[in-house]
Amino acid sequence: MKDIEIKGMVSAHCIIALSIVMATIVPAVLLDDFSVYGTHLVWLYICTAGVAAVNIAVYTLLGVSPPAKKNTLSHKVAKVSKSCLYFMFSCLLFHGIVVLYGAPLLESASETFSFAVLLSTFTTLRCLCILGPNVQAWIRVFSRNGAMSIWDTSLQITTASSVTGAWLGAFPIPLDWERPWQVWPISCTLGATLGFVAGLFIAPLWIHWHRKQLTYKSK
Amino acid sequence: MMKRVPVLALLLWICLLFYVGTWIFLSGFLLVKVEVNRNSSCKDKPFSKQDSSHTEHFCWSEPRFKRAVILIIDALQYDFARFDPEIKDPRPFQNKLGVLSEVVASRPAHARLYPFRADPPTTTMQRIKGFTTGSLPTFVDVCSNFGTNAIQEDNLIHQLGQNGKRVVFMGDDTWENLFPNQFHRSLPFPSFIVKDLHTVDNGILQHLCSTVESSDWDVVIAHFLGVDHCGHRYSPDHHAMADKLTQMDQVVRSVIERLQNDTLLVVLGEHGGDSQKETDAALFLFSPSALFTVGQEKALQEVVPQIDLVPTLAQLLGIPIPYSNIGKVMVELFALGSPEDGSAQERRQAEALWINANQVNRYLDTYSLANKDLSPMILAHLKDMFLLATTEYKTLFGGPLAGGPEHSSRVQALIATLQLYLNQVREMCQASWARFHPLRMAVGNAVLATACALCFITSDFADVVGASYRRLLWIPVVSGTVAGGGFALWQFSTGSEVEVLSSLGMAALVSQLSFFWNFCRRKATRVFVHQPSDLLNATADAAQQRPALTWPSIPLTIFFLRCASLFSDSYVVVEGRVVTFLLSTLAIYIPVQMNWAGRLLLPFEAQKSAPPCLPLQPSTPAASSSYKKESLTLLGCTGFLVASLYSSHFFHGCRDEQGNCKPSAFLTPLSGLRDIQLRNFRYLLSVSSVVAWVCLVRRWMRHYGNMNSKSPAVLVARCGLPLVATFVSLYWAMSSAPAEDFGNLQEVVRLALLVFPRAVYVLFGLGVAVVCWDPLTVFLKSRKEPAPSLLPPTYRASTGVSLQAELQHLIPHIYQRMRKSLRAGEREGAGREDDGQPTMEAYGLGTVYSAPLLLVLALLGLVLAMLHPEGLMLSFVLLLLQACAILHMHSAATSLSTPGSRAVSCPLLLLWPLVCESTKAGKRGRRAGEGEDGEEAVMEMKLREDPDRFSTALLQLGARYLFIHGAQLLASVCSATILRRHLMVWKIFAPKFIFEASGFAVTSVCLLLGLALVMRVDSAVSDWFKRLIPAHSR
């Protein structure tokens, strides 16, 4: 049963990773003067939109998210609107944290916010997809014994790796190498993206590796 | 009875080890020379020359050149200047300065290109110093005037001005600082914006050609920065470099076209590249009149040391050689006259060299009179050599002119002797002033590294160390002293000089080794002994040690990153940002980690979280409500901490290297503000922060009931603090208002400016003395009326405090203490008292340790604030709040979790002083240092129950604190060692090292003083109990 789940996760994650690759390649073919450094924000938005769409589609199709108690339309609308609200809130929160970490406060605020949106897509959106708009569940998942399925474990891993990637991405900014990618927020977005992709690949491997130790309590 | 002396002694010993290591390293790394502030002049008589001949003064009788154009092209490497026609596919920096080689090839008598080399300190300032004074610049020039950058030593510019030459300067504004008001005309341009390739160069180009064409000058100095900025910004392999070099080529061409016959052109690269291999710059000499003898050039050009340019230029222009010069003239430039008349040429060369040697000899005499750092043996040898050459010179040229081959060979021998003399002088001076001592640097590193290891061991195994001071403290100290003394004695007996440094190093290393040896043995036996016999104790110890051994890796990693960041010049430049970034990470890591460990919230009691919102549902059971409150406190404090870290950026100063950075407005002293309203506002802000500072401290003390007693320490808090604060604010008011505002009260103001600071110092000294004399702030009240026996006796911290605070902070400790004293009283009093007999109320006993510490800190903070610009008072208050937040976090984290996670917040606590550096007020480290003591002291009276543990905890705290600072010191020392050839070493790494070293000295001294104060309080409390208990039991 677990093997099937892991295989499903591998394919889901591959699709998500592929969406990032496509978000980089397709505009480069279609659009003139598109480059990841040069028109960074365009790439960022395309990437965010791609990842968000694919994530939502994949997890809806897989049916990972918790079953709704009431299957009425109004309930669904409430859930979706709540999710949107949470997402917005997490964008703002990330923006604030990034500013506290030393991002410029006023100039390039749009870049900072775009970066916050990207980070939210990599972390909060997946939380929303997998756990639903349920903060208590989120808190539970991010504790040592909180994971209740392999999806929760993968959520832990991808979230941690994208945040760590973004954190590491800030390191080269002060260096005097004068490279185009040392400009805020390029290195951070790249770091977050690479971290996210790495997390996507590490998660199934890690679960496969530790499948004997991983025993999930039922809810 | 707690062990006081050994704890202090151990920490003192560790500090001394650090000091010794730093000192040894310093002596090998920092090159120190004493400046000689005497000037040459044309009228100086050569010392040893009685009879007057044609060279009776230091000036050339008839200068070769009237005028000179000196073009300094920063970072013009020798590679850039060469032209190699065989290169088919030149890289961007190759073959662009064709003009130099063209001229050398077509007019060999007029031009020559040399490689040009400078000595270690390689900042622009040191370089300019080098090739104007002719002396070896050192990092710390001990000079008479500290306030200014201006060059005090005799130099070319000064001599040019003295001798009526009009010097026109354009380019890098460093020159303007080094030679203020010495130029006839100057056009400085800002040099620090590295990204700007063109401002300086274009500014020069606008004026250079017109200046050269006019006749309003004697010497033109133009300093171009574009090539250097281009090399930093891009790399030599960039097309911008090609453009820049082509531009320079055009400049040199156009200047050559405009030169007249009496003019000398010097083109020199100010420095080469970063690595040692590339440091050779280019030097190009040209004149429309013949400069060299054709056919004399050697196949391989020898490298010209940068200081050789000074005597050469001086003699060519007919001015005296600067007094402190130790360079040697370039003799080939003095082979003037027709090639056939060899004797005349040699005569001129010998004359030039002799003047030069005379001047160098005079400088050495003067220098060695005042300073002993040059070896007397070599000096004597050099002196002999000079005297021989002098006699030879006099016999050759003193009398009537002789000729013949024999004479000529003697002249040549003389030239060779003089050159040898000058070379040897330079070598000696380089060995003493301009060369690192790798051995000393290595020993210094070793001592520091072992001291760090020792600190780490002491902090991690504080109980082991605390249990065996005899073995681990006294034996190492004694053996170290014996070894050091023995070494010194051995040096003394063998007749060589006693080197204090080497014996100290010996002592430090031996004592450290003996510590490690004893520790290993002790550890082995201890484990062996303890495991079977004292199981309870062993498990307790294990529980204590376990978290220390497997320290949470992330705080250590972050600390490691902080140390590693000292190895990169970019990170050192933006250090404030780096440190706050890492600290924010650490601060946010704590709640995340606690949530991960399931300790932040009770399982499935999740109400609020690190991510989004906080839907508070107040429906929790009573037991978990306090738990929830603690975690809320923790989160709140974390938030506050991160926010205040962020706001610390408001107090930033700027480094020179940060191009587009504005220093914080708070750093400008109020007297520098023009706008009156702004000044008033800022003054009010500063004063209100002083008031806040005092009120916070007093409120804290009142809250914990330390303000009720009649003891002198409380008097200090009651009156001393407000008085000091008033004086400080008055002083600010007086000093910030412009003098003319006072009219005829100026005398009073001047007096006040003297009186207020002194009053503050006196009050501070008095306050500290009083607190040390009687540090107890406990108010004792014996109760005449028997307390209602039904109720438990009530203890009040003070009036107007919530019952809850009282319950939380005060009752348990006092209750315990009282119960104990009552019991003791009963035992002694043998039933003489009834149940309802006088009980006692002790106010403020719970914070008996913290209160005096805090009081001293508050006083110290005010004094420090007075020494800083007024605006920084705000940051002081911020620091106080931050410390408060950290202590709260600490206590919240401790109460939320098992002792294991205590280590989570501990490194943060220790990392904390770093933020002080980012606010750039140097002395702030000490506040943090003592904040920690306060943290230990929050444990309050419990500490007295277990004096051994208390002393161990103090030892651990002190050692850990020293470890954090020592590791940073070690990192900065290592970076200075490894990067000693780096281009930025004198600009960034050496100042950083000095900052760290002085910071360590200040913080360690304050740590020791703080601990001593804690010990003092402890002994006072013991005495107090001794007095109290018998008195009560009577």
Automatic annotation (TrEMBL), chain A:
The record's keywords, sorted A to Z, are: Endoplasmic reticulum, GPI-anchor biosynthesis, Membrane, Transmembrane, Transmembrane helix
**Gene field:** Pigf
Keyword Membrane among UniProt keywords: yes
Against InterPro entries, the record matches this protein to: GPI_biosynthesis_protein_Pig-F (IPR009580)
* The protein, known as: PIGF protein
Where found? Endoplasmic reticulum membrane
Bilayer disposition of the protein:
Multi-pass membrane protein
Predominant subcellular localization, coarse grouping: endoplasmic reticulum
Q: Which residues cross the membrane?
A: 12-30, 42-64, 85-106, 112-132, 153-171, 183-209
One short Pfam family name for this protein? PIG-F
What pathway is it annotated to? Answer: Glycolipid biosynthesis; glycosylphosphatidylinositol-anchor biosynthesis
